[in-house]
Amino acid sequence: xxNPTLAPGAAAPPAQVYTTFIRATPDRVWRAITESEFTLRxxxxxxxxxxxxxxxxxxxxxxxxxxxxxxxLESDPPRRLVMSFHAxxxxxxxxxxxxxxxxxxxxxxxxxxKVTVVHDxxxxxxxxxxxxxxxxxxxxxxxxxxxxxxxxxxxGA
Length: 157
Prior knowledge:
Elements: E1 16-22, H1 26-34, H2 36-42, E2 46-49, E3 57-62, E4 65-76, E5 80-87, H3 91-94, E6 99-109, E7 112-120, H4 127-149
Antiparallel strand pairs: 1-7, 2-3, 3-4, 4-5, 5-6, 6-7
Helix pairs in contact: 1-2, 2-4
């Protein structure tokens, strides 16, 4: 299937898409995404700060160091959260332009949520694209493990 927004023969901009199913309600998944009580245990030991309203800023910190900064672009708790994403954890990514991250949370029935992360808006396969490629699988696995067992996936989470 072709993308009608691209010129004929043009390559689609790179995107990363990850989906998992978690034995948890959408409300619990939303809390785990938006509250440091959870993110510290699965998201590279980072805290998150925001009210998660459309237009609000947000930051992730690892200890006292900024890791990610951005703006909430869409917020529809507990179904959808879209944010700009500017990685600043090292010099190699800090120079890249911001991208976009979308969390889609669906009730899959039976106490299970389907969670899809779409990271797009990359101008090219830049350093941010390369560095986050391995991170999303780890983050989603950690989120799933934490919500299903009550324990972090690993001590270094």
